[in-house]
Amino acid sequence: MTALLRGRVVLVVAVVLTIQQALLAGLRVRGAHPDLMLLLPIAFGLVGGSERGAAMGFASGLLADLFVGTPFGLSALVYTLVGFGVGMTEGDSLGGGWWVTPLTATVASAAGVLLYAGLGAAVGEGQMLHAHLVTVTIVVAVVNGLLAAPTARLARWAMDLSRSSGAWYTPVRSQSR
Amino acid sequence: MALTRRSTRPRFTLLLLVLAAVTIITIAYRGHADSVINSIKGDALDAFAPVQSAVGTVARPIGNFFDGAAHYGSLQSENARLRAENSRLQTQALQSVDAQASFQALLKTLNLPWAQNIPTVPAEVVANSSSNFEASIQLNKGRDAGINTGMPVVSGSGLVGRVVVASGSRSTVLLVTDPTSNVGVRFGPAGNLAVAAGQGTGKPLRVDLIPPQVPVDKGGLMNTSGLQQSIYPPGVPIGTVLTSGVPRGSFQQAVTLAPVADLSRLQFVAVMQWAPRS
Question: Is B128 within 8 Å of A20 when comparing Cβ atoms?
Fold first, then answer.
Protein backbone atom coordinates (compact mmCIF):
# COMPACT_ATOMS: atom_id res chain seq x y z
CA MET A 1 0.00 0.00 0.00
CA THR A 2 1.51 3.30 -1.04
CA ALA A 3 1.67 6.38 1.15
CA LEU A 4 -1.07 7.99 -0.91
CA LEU A 5 -3.45 5.11 -0.31
CA ARG A 6 -2.62 5.03 3.39
CA GLY A 7 -3.43 8.72 3.47
CA ARG A 8 -6.76 8.02 1.79
CA VAL A 9 -7.64 5.34 4.34
CA VAL A 10 -6.76 7.67 7.23
CA LEU A 11 -8.83 10.43 5.61
CA VAL A 12 -11.88 8.16 5.25
CA VAL A 13 -11.58 7.02 8.87
CA ALA A 14 -11.20 10.63 10.08
CA VAL A 15 -14.25 11.79 8.10
CA VAL A 16 -16.40 8.92 9.37
CA LEU A 17 -15.23 9.49 12.96
CA THR A 18 -16.11 13.18 12.70
CA ILE A 19 -19.56 12.44 11.30
CA GLN A 20 -20.18 9.86 14.02
CA GLN A 21 -18.94 11.97 16.93
CA ALA A 22 -20.14 15.40 15.94
CA LEU A 23 -23.37 14.70 14.08
CA LEU A 24 -24.75 11.21 14.60
CA ALA A 25 -24.14 11.11 18.36
CA GLY A 26 -26.82 13.79 18.72
CA LEU A 27 -29.25 12.11 16.34
CA ARG A 28 -31.46 9.67 18.18
CA VAL A 29 -34.18 7.44 16.83
CA ARG A 30 -36.16 6.12 19.81
CA GLY A 31 -33.14 6.59 22.02
CA ALA A 32 -30.70 4.80 19.72
CA HIS A 33 -28.28 6.32 17.27
CA PRO A 34 -26.47 4.97 14.20
CA ASP A 35 -22.99 3.46 14.46
CA LEU A 36 -20.91 4.39 11.44
CA MET A 37 -17.69 3.12 13.02
CA LEU A 38 -19.11 -0.39 12.67
CA LEU A 39 -19.92 0.26 9.03
CA LEU A 40 -16.25 0.97 8.25
CA PRO A 41 -14.94 -2.60 8.76
CA ILE A 42 -18.04 -3.93 7.00
CA ALA A 43 -17.35 -1.76 3.94
CA PHE A 44 -13.63 -2.56 3.94
CA GLY A 45 -14.35 -6.27 4.42
CA LEU A 46 -16.87 -6.23 1.57
CA VAL A 47 -14.55 -4.45 -0.82
CA GLY A 48 -11.12 -5.54 0.35
CA GLY A 49 -11.55 -9.01 1.80
CA SER A 50 -11.33 -10.51 5.25
CA GLU A 51 -7.83 -9.36 6.19
CA ARG A 52 -8.47 -5.70 5.45
CA GLY A 53 -11.89 -5.94 7.06
CA ALA A 54 -10.33 -7.27 10.24
CA ALA A 55 -7.55 -4.67 10.26
CA MET A 56 -10.03 -1.83 9.72
CA GLY A 57 -12.25 -3.32 12.43
CA PHE A 58 -9.44 -3.25 14.93
CA ALA A 59 -8.50 0.33 14.08
CA SER A 60 -12.02 1.77 13.99
CA GLY A 61 -12.99 -0.21 17.09
CA LEU A 62 -10.08 1.14 19.13
CA LEU A 63 -10.92 4.66 17.96
CA ALA A 64 -14.56 4.17 18.94
CA ASP A 65 -13.48 2.81 22.33
CA LEU A 66 -11.72 6.08 23.07
CA PHE A 67 -15.03 7.92 23.16
CA VAL A 68 -17.23 5.51 25.11
CA GLY A 69 -17.42 4.16 28.63
CA THR A 70 -18.01 0.50 27.79
CA PRO A 71 -15.07 -1.87 28.48
CA PHE A 72 -12.01 -0.62 26.62
CA GLY A 73 -11.09 -2.88 23.69
CA LEU A 74 -14.55 -4.42 23.34
CA SER A 75 -15.42 -2.51 20.16
CA ALA A 76 -11.99 -3.40 18.74
CA LEU A 77 -12.64 -7.10 19.30
CA VAL A 78 -16.17 -7.08 17.93
CA TYR A 79 -15.44 -4.89 14.90
CA THR A 80 -12.41 -7.06 14.03
CA LEU A 81 -14.58 -10.18 14.03
CA VAL A 82 -17.33 -8.45 12.02
CA GLY A 83 -14.88 -7.11 9.42
CA PHE A 84 -13.28 -10.52 9.04
CA GLY A 85 -16.64 -12.29 8.85
CA VAL A 86 -17.94 -9.95 6.16
CA GLY A 87 -14.75 -10.45 4.15
CA MET A 88 -15.16 -14.22 4.37
CA THR A 89 -18.80 -14.40 3.27
CA GLU A 90 -18.66 -11.91 0.41
CA GLY A 91 -18.50 -13.55 -2.96
CA ASP A 92 -18.61 -17.07 -1.57
CA SER A 93 -22.32 -17.39 -1.18
CA LEU A 94 -23.85 -14.33 -2.84
CA GLY A 95 -24.26 -13.29 -6.44
CA GLY A 96 -23.50 -9.82 -7.73
CA GLY A 97 -26.84 -8.04 -7.36
CA TRP A 98 -27.06 -4.39 -6.23
CA TRP A 99 -28.68 -5.51 -3.01
CA VAL A 100 -25.69 -7.57 -1.84
CA THR A 101 -23.88 -4.63 -0.24
CA PRO A 102 -26.84 -3.15 1.72
CA LEU A 103 -28.09 -6.57 2.77
CA THR A 104 -24.66 -7.72 3.97
CA ALA A 105 -24.19 -4.45 5.86
CA THR A 106 -27.61 -4.79 7.53
CA VAL A 107 -27.08 -8.38 8.63
CA ALA A 108 -23.47 -7.78 9.71
CA SER A 109 -24.43 -4.65 11.67
CA ALA A 110 -27.19 -6.45 13.53
CA ALA A 111 -24.81 -9.33 14.28
CA GLY A 112 -22.18 -6.82 15.41
CA VAL A 113 -24.51 -5.07 17.86
CA LEU A 114 -25.72 -8.35 19.34
CA LEU A 115 -22.18 -9.69 19.62
CA TYR A 116 -21.12 -6.43 21.25
CA ALA A 117 -23.86 -6.64 23.87
CA GLY A 118 -23.28 -10.36 24.39
CA LEU A 119 -19.52 -10.04 24.87
CA GLY A 120 -20.10 -6.96 27.03
CA ALA A 121 -22.34 -9.04 29.28
CA ALA A 122 -19.69 -11.77 29.31
CA VAL A 123 -17.08 -9.37 30.69
CA GLY A 124 -19.39 -8.24 33.48
CA GLU A 125 -21.56 -5.52 31.89
CA GLY A 126 -24.82 -7.48 32.10
CA GLN A 127 -26.91 -4.33 31.70
CA MET A 128 -25.81 -4.10 28.04
CA LEU A 129 -28.10 -7.01 27.20
CA HIS A 130 -31.33 -5.32 28.21
CA ALA A 131 -30.63 -1.66 27.48
CA HIS A 132 -33.18 -1.35 24.64
CA LEU A 133 -31.08 -3.80 22.62
CA VAL A 134 -33.76 -4.49 20.01
CA THR A 135 -34.16 -0.79 19.12
CA VAL A 136 -30.41 -0.28 18.94
CA THR A 137 -29.98 -3.34 16.71
CA ILE A 138 -32.71 -2.21 14.32
CA VAL A 139 -31.53 1.42 14.11
CA VAL A 140 -27.88 0.51 13.56
CA ALA A 141 -28.71 -2.22 11.04
CA VAL A 142 -31.13 -0.11 8.99
CA VAL A 143 -28.97 3.03 8.86
CA ASN A 144 -25.86 1.02 8.01
CA GLY A 145 -27.80 -0.79 5.30
CA LEU A 146 -28.82 2.55 3.79
CA LEU A 147 -25.32 4.01 3.97
CA ALA A 148 -23.55 0.81 2.89
CA ALA A 149 -23.29 1.56 -0.83
CA PRO A 150 -21.68 5.03 -0.51
CA THR A 151 -19.36 3.81 2.26
CA ALA A 152 -18.30 0.82 0.16
CA ARG A 153 -17.55 3.23 -2.66
CA LEU A 154 -15.42 5.31 -0.27
CA ALA A 155 -13.59 2.15 0.83
CA ARG A 156 -12.99 1.18 -2.79
CA TRP A 157 -11.61 4.64 -3.49
CA ALA A 158 -9.41 4.54 -0.37
CA MET A 159 -7.88 1.21 -1.37
CA ASP A 160 -7.86 2.16 -5.04
CA LEU A 161 -9.87 -0.88 -6.09
CA SER A 162 -12.16 -0.31 -9.01
CA ARG A 163 -14.70 -2.98 -9.85
CA SER A 164 -12.68 -4.18 -12.82
CA SER A 165 -9.25 -4.28 -11.20
CA GLY A 166 -8.18 -5.73 -7.88
CA ALA A 167 -6.17 -8.94 -7.88
CA TRP A 168 -8.30 -11.04 -5.57
CA TYR A 169 -11.60 -9.21 -5.61
CA THR A 170 -12.72 -9.86 -9.16
CA PRO A 171 -11.64 -13.53 -9.44
CA VAL A 172 -13.88 -14.42 -6.52
CA ARG A 173 -16.78 -12.82 -8.34
CA SER A 174 -16.05 -14.49 -11.68
CA GLN A 175 -15.80 -17.89 -10.03
CA SER A 176 -19.17 -17.55 -8.42
CA ARG A 177 -20.89 -16.69 -11.67
CA MET B 1 2.61 -23.47 -1.60
CA ALA B 2 2.08 -19.84 -2.36
CA LEU B 3 -1.66 -20.42 -2.46
CA THR B 4 -1.66 -22.01 1.02
CA ARG B 5 0.27 -19.11 2.43
CA ARG B 6 -2.16 -16.64 0.95
CA SER B 7 -5.22 -18.37 2.37
CA THR B 8 -3.82 -18.72 5.90
CA ARG B 9 -2.57 -15.15 6.16
CA PRO B 10 -5.96 -13.51 6.84
CA ARG B 11 -6.59 -16.03 9.60
CA PHE B 12 -3.22 -15.32 11.12
CA THR B 13 -3.99 -11.60 11.01
CA LEU B 14 -7.38 -12.22 12.60
CA LEU B 15 -5.81 -14.29 15.38
CA LEU B 16 -3.25 -11.60 16.05
CA LEU B 17 -5.84 -8.80 16.17
CA VAL B 18 -8.25 -10.79 18.34
CA LEU B 19 -5.45 -11.62 20.77
CA ALA B 20 -4.46 -7.96 20.87
CA ALA B 21 -8.06 -6.89 21.55
CA VAL B 22 -8.56 -9.52 24.25
CA THR B 23 -5.29 -8.45 25.89
CA ILE B 24 -6.43 -4.82 25.90
CA ILE B 25 -9.81 -5.77 27.39
CA THR B 26 -8.13 -7.86 30.07
CA ILE B 27 -5.63 -5.19 31.05
CA ALA B 28 -8.37 -2.54 31.15
CA TYR B 29 -10.74 -4.83 33.03
CA ARG B 30 -8.27 -5.65 35.78
CA GLY B 31 -7.87 -1.93 36.40
CA HIS B 32 -4.08 -1.91 36.10
CA ALA B 33 -4.13 0.60 33.30
CA ASP B 34 -7.08 2.77 34.34
CA SER B 35 -5.02 5.92 34.67
CA VAL B 36 -3.25 5.31 31.34
CA ILE B 37 -6.49 4.55 29.49
CA ASN B 38 -8.27 7.52 31.06
CA SER B 39 -5.47 9.86 30.09
CA ILE B 40 -5.51 8.50 26.50
CA LYS B 41 -9.29 8.98 26.43
CA GLY B 42 -8.80 12.51 27.77
CA ASP B 43 -6.24 13.26 25.06
CA ALA B 44 -8.65 11.95 22.43
CA LEU B 45 -11.41 14.22 23.78
CA ASP B 46 -9.04 17.20 23.75
CA ALA B 47 -7.79 16.43 20.25
CA PHE B 48 -11.33 16.10 18.96
CA ALA B 49 -12.68 19.16 20.79
CA PRO B 50 -11.91 21.79 18.08
CA VAL B 51 -13.37 19.63 15.29
CA GLN B 52 -16.47 18.97 17.35
CA SER B 53 -16.94 22.65 18.18
CA ALA B 54 -16.55 23.63 14.53
CA VAL B 55 -19.02 21.04 13.27
CA GLY B 56 -21.38 21.84 16.13
CA THR B 57 -21.31 25.56 15.31
CA VAL B 58 -22.38 24.81 11.75
CA ALA B 59 -24.79 21.97 12.44
CA ARG B 60 -26.58 23.15 15.57
CA PRO B 61 -28.39 26.22 14.15
CA ILE B 62 -29.55 24.13 11.19
CA GLY B 63 -30.89 21.45 13.51
CA ASN B 64 -32.47 24.06 15.77
CA PHE B 65 -34.15 25.74 12.79
CA PHE B 66 -35.82 22.53 11.64
CA ASP B 67 -36.67 21.61 15.20
CA GLY B 68 -38.25 25.02 15.81
CA ALA B 69 -40.16 25.00 12.52
CA ALA B 70 -41.52 21.53 13.19
CA HIS B 71 -42.62 22.26 16.72
CA TYR B 72 -43.81 25.87 16.40
CA GLY B 73 -47.29 25.15 17.82
CA SER B 74 -46.03 23.26 20.83
CA LEU B 75 -43.40 25.93 21.47
CA GLN B 76 -46.12 28.59 21.66
CA SER B 77 -48.15 26.66 24.21
CA GLU B 78 -44.99 25.76 26.12
CA ASN B 79 -44.13 29.46 26.25
CA ALA B 80 -47.52 30.31 27.75
CA ARG B 81 -47.22 27.51 30.27
CA LEU B 82 -43.73 28.65 31.27
CA ARG B 83 -44.92 32.24 31.79
CA ALA B 84 -47.62 31.06 34.17
CA GLU B 85 -45.20 28.82 35.98
CA ASN B 86 -42.64 31.62 36.20
CA SER B 87 -45.01 33.97 37.99
CA ARG B 88 -46.06 31.23 40.38
CA LEU B 89 -42.44 30.39 41.15
CA GLN B 90 -41.55 34.04 41.72
CA THR B 91 -44.18 34.22 44.45
CA GLN B 92 -42.93 30.99 45.92
CA ALA B 93 -39.31 32.18 45.86
CA LEU B 94 -40.21 35.32 47.79
CA GLN B 95 -42.00 33.24 50.39
CA SER B 96 -39.13 30.83 50.78
CA VAL B 97 -36.42 33.44 51.39
CA ASP B 98 -37.27 33.57 55.06
CA ALA B 99 -37.37 29.78 55.43
CA GLN B 100 -34.08 29.51 53.58
CA ALA B 101 -32.38 31.96 55.92
CA SER B 102 -33.46 30.12 59.05
CA PHE B 103 -32.50 26.80 57.46
CA GLN B 104 -29.00 28.05 56.64
CA ALA B 105 -28.58 29.31 60.17
CA LEU B 106 -29.65 25.94 61.50
CA LEU B 107 -27.21 24.07 59.21
CA LYS B 108 -24.41 26.35 60.31
CA THR B 109 -25.18 25.70 63.95
CA LEU B 110 -25.24 21.96 63.43
CA ASN B 111 -22.18 22.06 61.13
CA LEU B 112 -23.89 19.98 58.43
CA PRO B 113 -22.84 19.92 54.77
CA TRP B 114 -25.49 21.00 52.29
CA ALA B 115 -25.47 20.70 48.53
CA GLN B 116 -26.47 24.29 47.85
CA ASN B 117 -23.38 25.66 49.60
CA ILE B 118 -20.93 23.82 47.34
CA PRO B 119 -19.16 25.99 44.71
CA THR B 120 -20.04 25.06 41.13
CA VAL B 121 -18.52 25.41 37.66
CA PRO B 122 -21.04 26.21 34.91
CA ALA B 123 -20.53 24.25 31.68
CA GLU B 124 -22.25 23.71 28.36
CA VAL B 125 -23.25 20.33 26.99
CA VAL B 126 -21.49 19.86 23.66
CA ALA B 127 -22.29 16.25 22.77
CA ASN B 128 -24.19 13.14 23.63
CA SER B 129 -22.57 9.75 24.06
CA SER B 130 -21.50 8.07 20.84
CA SER B 131 -22.31 4.71 22.38
CA ASN B 132 -25.73 3.11 22.40
CA PHE B 133 -24.89 1.29 25.59
CA GLU B 134 -24.31 4.13 28.00
CA ALA B 135 -26.13 7.33 28.93
CA SER B 136 -23.56 10.10 29.06
CA ILE B 137 -22.94 13.66 27.92
CA GLN B 138 -19.85 15.68 27.13
CA LEU B 139 -19.16 19.11 28.64
CA ASN B 140 -17.13 21.94 27.13
CA LYS B 141 -14.94 22.32 30.22
CA GLY B 142 -12.46 20.06 31.95
CA ARG B 143 -9.59 20.04 34.42
CA ASP B 144 -8.48 23.53 33.36
CA ALA B 145 -11.76 24.88 34.74
CA GLY B 146 -11.44 22.94 37.98
CA ILE B 147 -13.51 19.89 37.01
CA ASN B 148 -12.29 16.53 38.23
CA THR B 149 -13.34 12.91 38.01
CA GLY B 150 -16.05 12.03 40.52
CA MET B 151 -17.65 15.47 40.79
CA PRO B 152 -21.48 15.57 40.81
CA VAL B 153 -23.26 17.45 38.03
CA VAL B 154 -26.61 19.23 38.40
CA SER B 155 -28.91 21.12 36.07
CA GLY B 156 -31.18 23.77 37.54
CA SER B 157 -32.13 21.98 40.69
CA GLY B 158 -31.88 18.34 39.70
CA LEU B 159 -29.08 15.80 39.75
CA VAL B 160 -27.71 14.99 36.29
CA GLY B 161 -24.87 12.57 37.04
CA ARG B 162 -21.17 12.56 37.82
CA VAL B 163 -17.94 13.21 35.94
CA VAL B 164 -16.24 9.99 34.82
CA VAL B 165 -13.55 11.31 32.47
CA ALA B 166 -11.98 14.78 32.77
CA SER B 167 -9.44 15.99 30.23
CA GLY B 168 -7.92 19.47 29.94
CA SER B 169 -10.78 21.05 28.06
CA ARG B 170 -13.56 18.45 28.07
CA SER B 171 -15.29 16.15 30.51
CA THR B 172 -17.64 13.19 30.21
CA VAL B 173 -20.59 12.91 32.57
CA LEU B 174 -22.29 9.59 33.28
CA LEU B 175 -26.02 10.33 33.62
CA VAL B 176 -28.13 8.99 36.48
CA THR B 177 -30.18 7.13 33.86
CA ASP B 178 -27.17 5.00 32.84
CA PRO B 179 -27.79 1.34 33.77
CA THR B 180 -24.57 1.29 35.81
CA SER B 181 -25.59 4.33 37.91
CA ASN B 182 -26.85 3.84 41.47
CA VAL B 183 -27.71 6.76 43.73
CA GLY B 184 -28.53 6.58 47.42
CA VAL B 185 -31.79 8.49 48.02
CA ARG B 186 -33.74 9.81 50.99
CA PHE B 187 -37.47 10.56 50.87
CA GLY B 188 -40.59 11.29 52.85
CA PRO B 189 -41.01 13.01 56.20
CA ALA B 190 -39.43 10.02 57.97
CA GLY B 191 -36.29 10.25 55.86
CA ASN B 192 -36.53 6.72 54.46
CA LEU B 193 -33.55 5.44 52.50
CA ALA B 194 -33.44 3.67 49.15
CA VAL B 195 -31.33 3.32 46.01
CA ALA B 196 -32.26 4.79 42.62
CA ALA B 197 -30.83 2.82 39.70
CA GLY B 198 -30.68 3.93 36.05
CA GLN B 199 -32.52 1.93 33.40
CA GLY B 200 -31.18 3.52 30.23
CA THR B 201 -31.65 6.71 28.20
CA GLY B 202 -35.15 8.17 28.32
CA LYS B 203 -36.40 5.71 30.92
CA PRO B 204 -37.41 6.54 34.50
CA LEU B 205 -35.17 5.49 37.38
CA ARG B 206 -36.00 2.37 39.35
CA VAL B 207 -35.99 2.76 43.14
CA ASP B 208 -34.98 -0.36 45.03
CA LEU B 209 -34.98 -1.42 48.68
CA ILE B 210 -38.23 0.22 49.81
CA PRO B 211 -40.11 -2.17 52.15
CA PRO B 212 -43.83 -2.72 51.35
CA GLN B 213 -45.10 -0.92 54.48
CA VAL B 214 -43.26 2.39 53.83
CA PRO B 215 -45.62 5.03 52.40
CA VAL B 216 -44.51 6.41 49.02
CA ASP B 217 -46.40 9.46 47.75
CA LYS B 218 -46.90 9.77 44.04
CA GLY B 219 -45.19 12.98 42.93
CA GLY B 220 -43.09 13.08 46.09
CA LEU B 221 -39.52 14.32 45.78
CA MET B 222 -36.47 12.14 46.41
CA ASN B 223 -33.10 13.67 47.29
CA THR B 224 -29.59 12.26 47.45
CA SER B 225 -28.98 10.75 50.87
CA GLY B 226 -25.26 11.58 51.07
CA LEU B 227 -24.60 8.81 53.51
CA GLN B 228 -21.04 8.01 54.50
CA GLN B 229 -18.80 7.35 51.50
CA SER B 230 -21.61 8.35 49.16
CA ILE B 231 -20.56 9.49 45.71
CA TYR B 232 -23.03 12.40 45.90
CA PRO B 233 -23.46 15.15 48.50
CA PRO B 234 -26.70 15.13 50.53
CA GLY B 235 -29.79 17.12 49.60
CA VAL B 236 -29.61 17.21 45.81
CA PRO B 237 -33.07 16.55 44.32
CA ILE B 238 -33.06 13.58 41.92
CA GLY B 239 -36.62 12.98 40.87
CA THR B 240 -40.29 12.74 41.68
CA VAL B 241 -42.17 9.47 42.17
CA LEU B 242 -43.85 8.41 38.95
CA THR B 243 -45.40 5.08 39.93
CA SER B 244 -45.39 2.96 43.05
CA GLY B 245 -46.92 -0.29 44.17
CA VAL B 246 -46.18 -3.62 45.76
CA PRO B 247 -46.00 -6.49 43.27
CA ARG B 248 -47.63 -9.70 44.50
CA GLY B 249 -45.33 -11.67 46.76
CA SER B 250 -42.55 -9.09 46.61
CA PHE B 251 -40.53 -7.98 49.60
CA GLN B 252 -40.01 -4.50 48.21
CA GLN B 253 -42.07 -1.89 46.42
CA ALA B 254 -41.80 -1.29 42.70
CA VAL B 255 -41.18 2.46 42.47
CA THR B 256 -40.15 4.50 39.45
CA LEU B 257 -38.74 7.99 39.56
CA ALA B 258 -38.91 10.73 36.91
CA PRO B 259 -35.65 12.74 37.01
CA VAL B 260 -36.11 16.41 38.01
CA ALA B 261 -33.54 17.50 35.41
CA ASP B 262 -34.71 17.21 31.80
CA LEU B 263 -31.93 14.82 30.76
CA SER B 264 -32.96 14.62 27.12
CA ARG B 265 -32.61 18.35 26.54
CA LEU B 266 -29.67 19.41 28.66
CA GLN B 267 -27.91 22.53 27.48
CA PHE B 268 -26.21 24.04 30.52
CA VAL B 269 -25.21 22.25 33.68
CA ALA B 270 -23.29 23.04 36.86
CA VAL B 271 -20.44 20.83 38.07
CA MET B 272 -20.26 20.78 41.87
CA GLN B 273 -16.71 21.01 43.14
CA TRP B 274 -17.20 18.30 45.65
CA ALA B 275 -15.29 15.07 46.20
CA PRO B 276 -16.61 12.03 48.02
CA ARG B 277 -15.21 11.72 51.55
CA SER B 278 -13.13 8.60 51.83
Answer: no
